[in-house]
Amino acid sequence: MLATTALAAALTALGVPAHATTAYPGHTTSRYVPLTDATSTHAHQAGCTEGRTGATGPRILFFGTQEKNDTLREPGRAGNSTTPRSAYTKAAAYAHHWAQGFTECRTDQATAHLALGVNNKDDGGITGTHAGQRWADLVTTVKDASTTDAVTITAALDAEPSWSTPTWARDWLAAYTKATTTPLYAANSADSCPTTGSGDCANGWRLADVHHMAGGGNHRIHVIPQIYRTDGIQATQWANISRWGHTNANDPLRFAGAMSQHTACQQRSCTNTDNTPQQSWDQLKKALDAHTATRVNDLGPATDMRWP
Question: Is the pLDDT of residue 7 over 90?
C-alpha cells in the first residue's frame, strides 16, 4: 500500500489546501510568537508579509506551553522562567489580526491554513487531557469568529518525545480530537528514533507513540515534521516511522510538507540544524521515495520557522 493515496484529494476533503506537488513548491513562513510584547499591529504586519508572498499553504503560529488558568508560557522558556504568562485570549487576538493582514495584502488569491500551535511540555501544571480540550476550545472559538475566507483556522502541536511522557501527549491528542473535528498539523520531532526497523525513541517513547502523535490512525492529522539537520538523518527517521506505520498498522503517515528553521537559525545561532526550506523538503521527499511503502507523489510546501 503506497502512501500516495491522492494526498491532494485527501487534503481537499479534510479542508487542507490541495497545493501539494511532485516538484519543490516553495515555502511559507511560520513563527514563534512570544505574546508578552506582541501587538495587534505586529500580528497584522506578519500576516500581511505572508499574504504578499502569494504562496498558498499552512502557516503555524507557535505560542509556547500551556499552563494552568488558560495561560501560555512563551516559546523557548523553561517552567521556572519568570517571564509573564499570557492569556489564551491574547493568542486568539493575535491570530485574528494576522488573518486580517494576510487577507488585506494577499496576492495571487493566496490562501492560508493558519494553525494555532502549542507544544507538549508537561511542566505547566495541567494534565494532557485538560490541555488538549482547552486548546480545541480556543481553536474552535477563533475559527467560529473568523471573518475571512482567505484564511482557514486550524491547530498545530509540536510534540517532542523529550518534552513529556508519551501518556501526557496521547492524552492531549485524545482530548483535542474528541472536542473538535478541526484538522491538526503535527509539527513534531523524532528524538532518538531509529532510522531503520523497530526500536525505542527518547524519554520512553516507542515508535508506536511517535507514529500515533503524527497522525497514525487519524486522517484529520497531517504531519509537517522537523527536518532541521543538515545531515539528513531526521528525514530518514520520519521515513522509517511512516514505514513502521505501514508495516504494523497499515497506515503510513500523511505528510503535508517539511519544516525548517533556517531563518530562526539566522536570528539565533544553530549548529548543523539550519537546513534551508528546500533542503528540508528535498531530504524528506528523497527519504520517503526510497521505499514503495512510504513513497509520496504529492508533498506540500515547506514551512520555515522564524522568531517574530
Answer: no
**Taking Cα atoms as reference points, which of 158, 28, 141 lies closest to residue 95?**
141
Q: Is residue 81 a part of any domain in this protein?
A: no
Residue 117 has pLDDT above 60, yes or no: yes
Q: What pLDDT was estimated at residue 17? A: 42
CB 122 within 8 A of CB 78: no
Q: Is 174 helix (H, G, I), strand (E, B) or coil?
A: helix
User: Measuring CA to CA, which residue among 251, 305, 262, 255 is closest to residue 285?
Assistant: 255
> Considering only CA atoms, which of 261, 291, 296 is closest in space to residue 276?
261
pLDDT tier, 261 (very low <50, low <70, confident <90, very high otherwise): very high
In this prediction the pTM is 0.93
Residue 150's domain comprises 27-73+86-306
Name the pairing type of β-strands 184-186 and 259-260: unpaired
**Whole-number Å distance between alpha carbons of 277 and 258:** 8
What is the total count of domains within the chain?
Answer: 1
Q: Is residue 4 part of a domain?
A: no
Q: Mind giving me the DSSP string for 146-169? A: ---SSEEEEEEEE--GGGS-HHHH
- Report the sign of the C-alpha dihedral through residues 151, 219, 227, 277, in that order: negative
* pLDDT value, residue 8: 44
CB atoms within 10 A of CB 64: 26
Number of CB atoms found within 10 A of residue 198's CB: 12
